[in-house]
Amino acid sequence: MNVAIIGGGLAGLTAAAYLSEQPGVTGVLFERSPQLGGRAFTYEKAGFTLNYGAHAIYGLDRHTLSVMERELNLDFSSKQVDKRKVMYEKGEHLTPAPLDFVNLVKTDLLTAMQKVRFVGEITAIMANIHHIKHYATLGDYLAESGAAEDVKELWEHLVCSNFFITPEDARRVPGTVISDYYHNLFLSHRPVNYVLGSWAVITNQLRDKINASGRWTIALQEGVDGIRYEQGKYVLSTKAREETFDRVIFAMPIQQVVKLLRCTPWEPFLAPYEQNTATEVMVYDVGLNHVVARPFSYISDMNHKLFISDVSATDHTLVPEGGQLLQGIAYLSDESSSDEDRKAYLEERTQQMESLFDRHYPNWRDAVAVKRVSKKAMVQSVKNIASNRLVPNRIESMPFYFCGDGCEGKGELAERAFSSGRRVAERLAEELSQVHATKPRRHAAEL
Fold first, then answer.
1. Tally of CA atoms within 13 A in the half-sphere of 316 that contains its CB
2. pLDDT tens profile 23-35
3. Residues in Cβ contact with 7 at an 8 Å cutoff, skipping those fewer than 6 apart
4. Residue 262 carries which DSSP code?
5. pTM attached to this predicted model
6. Among 401, 407, 409, which residue's Cα sits nearest to residue 429?
7. Whole-angstrom Cα distance, residue 312 to residue 320?
8. Max Cα–Cα distance, the chain, nearest Å
């Protein structure tokens, strides 16, 4: 079986790494950019290692990456964010984020009775019997819950933080998604971690595993421009060549798949997914030549819906000696507006972000060695809200496989990319084994 994987992000690399272990499978991994990793690519500048966006791993001990670590013999280290130094800012007041019982007791965001109720809700989710899974959305649940406004706001803010979305979108997240996600996270012994050395540690090992098989090639800077079906095979066209494959895996955002398959016989089957919207944020990275302040590892501004992570407080490998790497994330609304309004909105978000830096990292501007601002960075190709539809790993009436953070799979964000890539590889391996099982055996006389 000769397989093409279109997209060299986390999902494509995962699928190719698993399939490289199948002796009957050859393939090509196509990636249009100069580097692998997709939105998880990493680069170095002035001694700082920068990731394109956030790269925390939620619930590492229950995460698909831990399964891959065992199955693919990956080797990486990780460090947990100090929960005691995760803070929320509301009004002009700072308080510990209610991430566990100790912080919940300390937090000033809730009254004593509200804390009791919130603990009860978390306990119910951990037992996987919470009522929220019976509601279409978080907003529907909160509307009927009878909870105090502070509890509702806290629920919204938790979802904002984990899904990288605005409060209005948090209310649109399906109840089943909320229940499954927090059931998994609250049971985790390692809720928020960084892989030491960033995404490159993972993507480089996946790349090496693919290359070591000798049956796969990685085609960088070679985007697929067209695909057609001929004589039982799929012919993929790039600027450099045409090549024939038995199976095709799309490991890229559905928005790009729609463009590639426009005016082909498969276009109509993508109609249910064409209106999917992506999760986009503003990313504000600053590498400082010395530590200007380290009051906490994470500060979330509940007033303006943005946060700053002191990434180097957890992962010292990302900075030169004595340096500090801070990453700000601002959730963005995708409400339609004119270009002029959008520009003004993004400028306002930038000023709010810089104000948060000013409040908690005084004189940071004088210490900047590296600065990068991405005003519209895609975090997830399909925002997991009720009006969107995650893409199945197989779409009915289509012969292709689909994986990525916008596809069906376990978890959110990067975990769904890993889990869907792994799942697609498993399904292809099963398909191959079924083909072998149905082949007639040759008689001794023929041999």
1. 3
2. 989 999 999 999 9
3. 30, 31, 38, 250, 251, 252, 404
4. T
5. 0.91
6. 401
7. 10
8. 87
